[in-house]
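Below is a filled-in request sheet from our internal design queue. Each sheet records the structural input a requester submitted and the sequence that came back. We keep these sheets so that new team members can see what a complete request looks like end to end.

REQUESTER: design group, bay 2
PRIORITY: normal
MODE: inverse folding
CHAIN LENGTH: 429
BACKBONE (tokenized):
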């Protein structure tokens, strides 16, 4: 009888522990960065998901974009120490580390129909033609903003109001005039990013690929825009600390624009939510068409994707989360509240009812949408190149060395090409 009681007690204990374990939800982690309010929107959506799926909780680890996403996260992923999911922009170089969810999601055909093939294919490793590894949660295009209030105060006409083909040289000069007339600290700025430089360079006639598809840096158009940027720094009409004070990393000039210290700012559509929130009605701001040149008037395509990592211990649960986030209504809610151009094809065709009272935000969204047909073919080719990070980083870092006086432009271009060739050779071997 005593032996039976002990066994019964042990059985009850095991059952109790099993019941507790069964009730413990699986915890998933997503590494995330914010341009504006998108992290809080995602949190709301995940709260709704968790209410419907009490066996799963999702923790959002929000990190700095430059340090956390661009530098630390790739190392973690390659070491097998990454999160379950991540929001990233330079995704083409990590395709061997993503989880294929085609057999895990409820309706893979919906995924196929809902997202651009060029983006979905860029997440696939070589030889894979139909894997589902993630989805684009925003589409972006690079382009400039102006502080229209400063133009009005200066009594100077905005060139793009009457001219569809304003060059970089013309924008530089008029921005300088506005800054001088209004005693604004800076006339013009561009983010410290090779991706950001590429669009203006292509517009100025740069060619990043030869006839055989090999990556090339040195061209008249590339030199032209590099010289333009050098001139901004020489003339002290741009905040030097953006490019000079951030060696080896991405940096944005957004705060200078937000604080009314900058007339003309080259960045991209992802800033709209940030500006709508942080500028408010302090001044009138808006997006203007990309400056034009021998190569057209092009921005760079881009955006972020949310990927699943194959080292996750909970692939089925990850797929359930991702399957929820790609649904039409969830995607519509995310785009409307974050003021992003949607990556979902259906929404891009239908249009999004953006939740904003800001006329500046509405104008800018429409301006960027109007710029999509002007994107040059080589801009797409460059953005989705498997080694695009190596290309963009070489441009950013070597051009930064020119601006700090460490290299001449001639030497920097040689080094850029060497950096790119070395990266491509390492992959080929």
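RETURNED SEQUENCE:
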């Amino acid at each position: 009888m005593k032996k039976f009681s002990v066994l019964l007690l042990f059985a009850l204990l095991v059952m109790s522990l099993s019941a507790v374990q069964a009730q413990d939800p699986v915890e998933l982690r997503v590494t995330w960065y914010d341009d504006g309010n998108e992290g809080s929107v995602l949190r709301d959506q995940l709260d709704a998901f968790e209410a419907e799926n009490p066996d799963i909780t999702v923790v959002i680890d929000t990190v700095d974009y430059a340090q956390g996403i661009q530098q630390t996260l790739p190392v973690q992923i390659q070491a097998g120490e990454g999160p379950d999911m991540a929001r990233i922009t330079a995704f083409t170089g990590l395709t061997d580390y993503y989880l294929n969810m085609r057999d895990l999601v409820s309706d893979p055909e919906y995924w196929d129909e809902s997202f651009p093939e060029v983006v979905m294919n860029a997440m696939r490793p070589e030889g894979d033609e139909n894997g589902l590894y993630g989805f684009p949660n925003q589409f972006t295009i690079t382009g400039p903003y102006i502080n229209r209030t400063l133009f009005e105060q200066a009594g100077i006409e905005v060139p793009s109001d009457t001219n569809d083909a304003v060059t970089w040289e013309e924008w530089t000069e008029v921005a300088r005039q506005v800054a001088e007339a209004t005693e604004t600290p800076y006339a013009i700025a561009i983010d410290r990013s090779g991706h950001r430089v590429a669009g203006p360079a292509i517009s100025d006639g740069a060619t990043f690929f030869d006839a055989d598809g090999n990556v090339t840096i040195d061209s008249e158009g590339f030199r032209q825009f590099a010289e333009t940027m050098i001139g901004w720094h020489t003339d002290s009409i741009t905040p030097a600390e953006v490019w000079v004070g951030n060696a080896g990393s991405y940096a944005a000039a957004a705060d200078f624009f937000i604080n009314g210290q900058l007339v003309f700012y080259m960045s991209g559509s992802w800033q709209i939510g940030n500006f709508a929130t942080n500028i408010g009605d302090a001044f009138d701001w808006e997006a203007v068409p990309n400056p034009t040149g021998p190569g057209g008037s092009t921005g760079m395509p881009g955006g972020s994707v949310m990927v699943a990592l194959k080292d996750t211990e909970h692939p089925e649960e990850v797929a359930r989360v991702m399957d929820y986030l790609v649904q039409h209504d969830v995607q519509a809610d995310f785009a409307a509240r974050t003021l992003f151009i949607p990556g979902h094809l259906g929404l891009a065709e239908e249009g999004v009812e953006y939740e904003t009272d800001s006329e500046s935000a509405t104008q800018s969204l429409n301006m960027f949408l109007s710029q999509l047909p002007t994107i040059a073919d080589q801009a797409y080719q460059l953005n989705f190149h498997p080694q695009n990070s190596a290309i963009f980083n070489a441009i950013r870092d070597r051009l930064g060395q020119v601006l700090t006086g460490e290299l001449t432009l001639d030497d920097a271009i040689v080094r850029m090409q060497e950096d790119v060739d070395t990266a491509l050779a390492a992959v080929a071997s």
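SHEET NOTES:
- The chain is about 50% helix and 15% strand.
- The chain has a mean pLDDT of 92.
FILED BY: M.R.
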